[in-house]
Amino acid sequence: MRRPHLLDVLAAAAILVAPASCRSRERVCVPGSTQTCVCPDTSRGAQSCAADGARWEPCACVPPANTAPPLDPDGDTAALRPNKIAECNTLIQVINEGVRSLDRGQEAGASRGGSSELRGMADSIDEAASRAAQLELTRPELQRFAGEYQALAKEIARAARDLATAADTNDAEKLGAAQVAIERAMKREPALAGRIKRFCQAP
């Protein structure tokens, strides 16, 4: 009879020992089946049988209801992140509508007889300001930007109406004052637009 080689003994020992050490963490299961498991916080989870049926997948645990959602680099919850983009787009759209109204009426007001166009421009800008006031914005920064735009738009609309009245009465002094007022207000628009753009493009 052949004397057992040391490697044969070790191999046999490994066969005998391995099942004993692995039995508690390995099970034969039906692929696709599930079973209840215990999570680290003692709550119940579920685990699925692997595709090869040789093991159970890690326990899938549901976070407690009071667990806060993950934060993004801004400190915002990941679930709220899409809202920032949507709200930015909504506010920018309203502001752009006001800018287009301003562009349409600006040239008309530069010539005599354009008072009706100036008043129409003022009405359109007032409407844009009203729409900005009605936006449902949740971000404090966007709420502040919307408030600044409303004040700026109303100032431009008021100056445009003053300009139209001065043009109708051919009052050179009031015409000059109204023109200065509308230009001063318009110069603040690019700075506001720049701050909105920086906030909305920030990660």
Explain what the structure shows.
With 203 residues, the protein is mainly alpha-helical. 62% of the residues lie in helices and 5% in strands. The protein is built from 6 helices and 2 strands; from the N terminus they run H-E-E-H-H-H-H-H. A hairpin with a 5-residue loop joins strand 1 (34-38) and strand 2.
Provide a compact summary of the structure.
This protein has 203 residues and is mostly helical. It is built from six helices and two strands. It folds into two domains: 35 residues, no CATH class; 124 residues, Four Helix Bundle (Hemerythrin (Met), subunit A).
Output the keywords.
disordered N terminus; 2 domains; 2 strands; two-stranded antiparallel sheet; single chain; 203 residues; Four Helix Bundle (Hemerythrin (Met), subunit A); mainly alpha
